[in-house]
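ok here's HesB-like protein, seq below lol
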Amino acid sequence: MLLTLNRKGVQMMEITVSDAAIKWFKDEMNLQPGEGIRFFGKVYGRTNVHEGFSIGIAKEIATKPLVRTEIDSLIFSIDQTDDWFFAGYDLQVDYDAQKDEPIYHFEATPAHSAS
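and the structure came out like this:
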């Protein structure tokens, strides 16, 4: 887990990834140590906080990371260009065994939930 702070020292967001989700990314996307997953916002679908948008994934590392988390030698990141989609939320990534795919949950960051 990585805690990202802005210039004023206020928490921006964090990414957490469950062990089961990490295993899925390793197995299904053939991730090797030092490689990563970039999460991004895409049109169509829904999340628990977005209507008409969902999360996409790419086997790459953000070039200008908004947040970057290293777990088990894998890098999970979000690019600054996707701030519009992730701003104000922490991203929790887990695994749905019935669907055999990652699941995503957004939680308001403490700075935003207190406002």
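fwiw The two ends are 24 Å apart (CA to CA). kinda neat tbh
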